[in-house]
Amino acid sequence: MAAAILFDLDETLHDRAASLRAFLIDQHRRWFLDRVEEETFVERFTRLDAHGSLSKAVLYPKLMVELGIDEPSGADLATEYSLRYHEFACPMAGAGDLLAALRRQGFKLGIVTNGWTDFQSRTVATIGIRDAVDAVLVSEAEGLRKPDARLFRRAAERLGVATESCLFIGDNPTVDILGAEAAGMRAIWLRRGIPWPNHHPPAQLHVDELTDVVELLL
Ligand SMILES: [Mg+2]
Q: N- or C-end of the chain: fewer Cβ atoms within 10 A?
């Protein structure tokens, strides 16, 4: 039985796809309404973004070149992203209730996320789950990124439990699931769109919705 449950943030507790889409529709409406189709803007951003793996300071200038647009500058759009994204950030359906139920059962709870400390901390706060967990580890602040096993071990340490007593839940097969397992944790893969890598044996535990975790744990 696990003593602690650790979660990835983006596309696990934070519905990044829905939040990002809402932000992009607003950004399109304010800057590009008569110049680019809304779906073209959203689709090209989403493809370059590759599940959040490309810095927006790099992404926006590329996107403006692709769209053949000079104004506003990519740098200004990237600044706007960092300032306004959180107005649109929303939790994954059922995330708050799940965390509350797990806490009532006595689990220690934590979040381990790759990204910028300020940005990810604001996401945790604005989707209303900061007080629902015992620790939040962001890669920039920790100086380590998933799938580095040291970051998973540090999270266990922060919660005061053994690494082997932790269960990790995340959507990224390589970064979250194989990373957690390599560190000695069990893991549940949330199937949200990133395919399982062919060259690895299938995930031992998986769910299609975050709320399905309850049936595996309670
Ligand atoms: Mg994720």
A: N
Q: How many angstroms does the Cα of residue 173 sit away from the middle of ligand 1?
A: 9
Domain identity same for 44 and 106: no
In the reported structure, the alpha carbon of residue 11 is separated from the centroid of ligand 1 by a whole-number distance in angstroms of: 5
Residue 58 tokens read as: 């790099």
Q: How far is CA 210 from CA 27, 36, 136, 140, 159, in A?
A: 29, 35, 19, 26, 22
State the pairing for strand pair 206-207/108-113. unpaired
User: Is the predicted pLDDT of residue 153 greater than 90, yes or no?
Assistant: yes
Q: How far is ligand 1, taken at its centre, from the CA of residue 30, in Å?
A: 28
Domain carrying residue 192? 4-15+91-217
Distance 65 CA to ligand 1 centre (A): 28
pTM (two decimals): 0.95
